[in-house]
Structure formats: C-alpha cells, structure tokens
Amino acid sequence: MYTYDSLLEAITPKSGETRDVFDPATGELIGKAPVNTTADVDRAIDTAVSHQASWAGLSNDERVAYLHKAADAVEANSEALVAILSREQGKPLNGPNARFEVGACVTWLRVTADTPLPVETVIDDGQTFAEMHYRPLGTVGAITPWNWPMMIAIWQIAPSLRMGNTVLQKPSEYTTLSGLALNFILNTALPEGVLNTVVGAGDLGAHIVASEKIDKIMFTGSTRTGKRIVEASSGNLKRLTLELGGNDAGIVLDDVDPQAIAEGLFWGAFINTGQTCAALKRLYVPDSIYDDVVSALADFAAKVPMGIGLDENNALGPLQNEMQFNVVDRLVEAAKASGARVVLGGNPDRDAAGYFYPTTLIADIDPSNELVVEEQFGPALPIIRYSTVDEAVRLANELEVGLGGSVWSSDRDRAREVAARVEAGTVWINSHGTIHPAVPFGGAKQSGYGQEFGTAGLKSVSQPQVIQG
C-alpha cells in the first residue's frame, strides 16, 4: 500500500527532462513530471501493439479477473491517489470531488468487468443462422482531460482492456501526476505492456492520433480538438469515440418548488467547481417563478465553502489552471458589462496565489450573451428568463452542442414530454449530470459521437463480426 509521499516518489522521473508541477490552489510546487517525446510515443505504441495478441488471447473470464485485481489495487491505495488528485487538480477531498472520483474509478472497473456481452443470435429461422460476435480492435489511444483525470481515464481504459485491446493513454498535460499515479497503481495488477502511458502536450496527442498502428481513439475534450482528431484519423480509418464540449441547458417548469430543487440545481451546475463537460451551464426559468428560483439557488450557493482542496471542510476548489480562470473571468466581465445582474460572486481576487473564482450567479441576462452561448466551464451560471415552454426549448436547442440537458418539474410525465424535445445525448429529469456505469452516455450534434458505459461502451471498443452458416 502506498502513501502520498511514496506514490509521488514512485512516479517521479529518476532521469531525463522534467517539468515542475504546481498546486492550483496555492501555487506551491508539488513535484516533477517527465517530458516525453514523439520517439517515446512510438516506443509506447510498439509496446502496446506487441502485447495485444497475448492479452486478447486470454479468456474473457481472465481479463475480467485482471480488472477486478486492478480495482482492488485502486481501492487499497485510494487515499494516496486522492491526495495527488486533490493537490494537482485542485478539487476538495469530500463531496462530489476527489474521494468520489477515486471511488468511481473502482466502481467503473468492477461494473465494466461484470457487464455481460454475450454472443447475439441475429437470425435462426431454420434456413439462415447468424451470430454477432465482438472482437478486439487492437490498440486504443486514450486521450483524457484535466477535469476528471482519473475517472474519465478509467471510462476509456476499462472497456478497452475488457474487450482484449491494449491501451496507450495520454493524460492531460495539466494533470500529468494524476494520470501517472493512477496508471502506476493499475499496472501493479495488470500484465506488463497492456496499459502504457505517455505524458506531454497536444503535439503528443496528435502523434498518437496520426499513428497507423493505433486502431481506435477515445477522446474527451473540446469540440475544436475533436474536429482535428477526425481529420487526422483518416490515415487508417481508425474508429473514434469523441465526448466533446457541452453547454448543457436546464429548463425549469412553472410547477416546481424552488426551495426543493435548489440543491439539485446547484450541484448540477457547480460540481467540480463547474469544470464538468455535462454540467448545467445555462438555466432557463419561467417568469412566474424566476425571482423565487434565483433567490433559492443563491441562498444555497452562498453556504457552500470554497477553498484549498486538502481542507476536509471545503466542497469547491480552484479552477485547475490559469487558462480556464481567464475564460470564466472574461465571460463574467462581458455579462456584467452588458447590464446583467450579479446575484452572487463575480468578484475574484486576481492577485491571489490560487486560481479561485467565486461561485457566481448572473441573472436577467440576454439569451445571446457570451456567458450563455459560450461554454464557461467554471463556477458561473447564467439564469435566463422565458415566457413559454416553446421559447425555452428553442433557446436550449439553438446552440450547436448537445451533450446533456435537464428538465425540472413536479410532474414527471410533463417533464418527459419536454425532455423528448431537447436535442442532447442525455436529458435528466430533476437532476443534472448524474451518470451510471451501466447507462450509455454520449453526445449529440457537435458534442461528439459514440457512446460509453454499459454494453454500448463495450461494443464501441470492439469490432463486430457476423458469423453466418
């Protein structure tokens, strides 16, 4: 079992070029990360490819057993992983944050291991017999983001391994230590060469995508980068799963109790300090209860503590990096300049050591304001008035993205009718962003394509093969 110090020591390079890694809450030096090159990527790809046949040659039960061993290893070393994650990413220990994320890694490993994917009989009518099998694709390139660096890595690694693929994973350059630490622990349980890691910036990701030895790319990140991946992947027509930018809309109907939904609205929007692809990022509220919803949400939000992640009392942390701080700051300032009303927050200390942006609610904002139409990816929520449900649905659907959405109502049937009109990969009722490892998840429109989780996720990292006769 590793401690924070011993795990950090284990992943610290003993030679070669390194770079410093800093705590986004305090600016303090955490440790050093390796700097990999494209030559390192090529070697890692070759390692993954060379071990793929032996890994695929194991039985399904054997691979399942390895995933459970990996889950055991993550669980046994969870507090060391939590500490590295909290210090590097910034998220607090408690609430839906660091301990939640590492716990989700264990859950997703186990559920992915145990999800059945039997051979499917397509037709058996006495004249024709055909079965659908799912075979390994080969080697999967997994390119993961900085907001949930461990959990999203498992979303990509676990199904790929389960189906007999080997993996080359590149964590975000903003959360390198978190990726290295997780994979180090996983590799204490997995066979050599099955899970490989390279670390670096976008140029390494581009090199992975362009490699004709990579058979599948799984990517979570911006729509802009996703489009580049589509273009670069044409060399060998590699398969793609792309979970891209959101700007999720929530529609509150006029039959709700504002006090009853305030907590759910808050965590839908501000989980991980708003740094979640499928967070609630624009909220549409009817005129008749607008002021009551804004007031109830502000009352709840004002009580949620923000601060350094290692403080057990905090529930919100800093933004992970200066780039994202500047995006949120710019969008909120644009909203303020337009005459929108600041209900809470909007006043960051730009001279502070950490990238803290206060929980911010912006009311009476134009539906076309930058803060509404551009994904803020941080703790600032615009709340837009509407007059009719048709207007709210039109506003929710008019953007080019559609990862998630939500409808809030005391009448579930009415909510489902509205939800069916929202153009998004997932629409939640009376919650937002609640995911389950057995429920497929993926985007609509320019929020990407392909699904993760459950049997759909296993199929997405497999080659369908029909055997007929």
Structural commentary:
With 469 residues, the chain is an alpha/beta fold. The protein is 39% helix and 20% strand. It has helices at 4-11, 38-56, 60-76, 78-89, 98-114, 151-162, 176-187, 202-210, 223-232, 258-270, 290-301, 322-337, 370-373, 389-397, 412-419, 454-460; strands at residues 18-22, 29-34, 120-124, 129-136, 139-143, 166-170, 195-197, 216-220, 239-243, 248-252, 280-286, 341-344, 360-363, 380-386, 401-402, 404-408, 426-429, 444-445, 448-449, 462-468. The model has no long low-confidence stretch (mean pLDDT 97). It has 16 helices and 20 strands. Strand 3 (120-124) and strand 4 form a beta hairpin. Helix 3 (60-76) runs antiparallel to helix 5 (98-114) and helix 5 (98-114) packs parallel to helix 6 (151-162). The longest helix has 19 residues, at 38-56. It has a 7-stranded mixed β-sheet, sandwiched between helices. Strands 7-6-5-8-9-19 form a 6-stranded mixed β-sheet, sandwiched between helices. It has a 3-stranded antiparallel β-sheet with strand order 3-4-20. The protein has 2 domains: 4-244 and 447-468, 3-Layer(aba) Sandwich (Aldehyde Dehydrogenase, Chain A, domain 1), CATH 3.40.605; 248-429, Aldehyde Dehydrogenase, Chain A, domain 2. It is globular. The active site is at residue 243. This is Aldehyde dehydrogenase family protein. Keywords: Oxidoreductase.
The counted number of beta strands is 20
CATH superfamily of the largest domain: Aldehyde Dehydrogenase, Chain A, domain 1
* Proportion of residues in extended strands: 15-25%
Order of the strands making up the biggest sheet: 12-13-14-11-10-16-17
As a percent range, the share of helical residues equals: 25-40%
Whole-number count of domains: 2
Spans where pLDDT lies below 50 across 5 or more residues: none
**Global morphology:** globular
Residue-averaged pLDDT? 97
Class of secondary structure makeup: alpha/beta
Alpha-carbon distance between the termini? Answer: 52 Å
CATH class of the largest domain, please?
A: Alpha Beta
Biggest β-sheet strands, sense, barrel: 7 strands, mixed
Rg over C-alpha atoms, rounded to the nearest angstrom? 23 Å
CATH architectural name of the largest domain:
3-Layer(aba) Sandwich
CATH topology (fold) name of the largest domain: Aldehyde Dehydrogenase, Chain A, domain 1
Count of runs of 4 or more consecutive helical residues: 16
